[in-house]
Amino acid sequence: xxxxxxxxxxxxxxxxxxxxxxxxxxxxxxxxxxxxxxxxxxxxxxxxxxxxxxxxxxxxxxxxxxxxxxxxxxxxxxxxxxxxxxxxxxxxxxxxxxxxxxxxxxxxx
Length: 109
Fold this sequence. Notes:
Layout: H1 3-10, H2 16-63, H3 73-92
């Protein structure tokens, strides 16, 4: 049997004022518990949001090269793109024409 039920059973013969006092105390305790729970939920929400923000910040910082290290991400991409274009230009350049072979080397003799 809970404390509240014990008190109510003890005071059933007494005035309703005592029962009202017990219910008021229980109601206040319940209200305080709900307030604490609401505050804890808000803190948890804020902590999770801050953690997610930090996680995204770390992910972004890993993707970029800092300016102190020499080049930015855009500069590195431009360098890579330039190298890709240069290698494509080399492979697509026309081959040098073959030199004519001599009469005896060609097998006509």
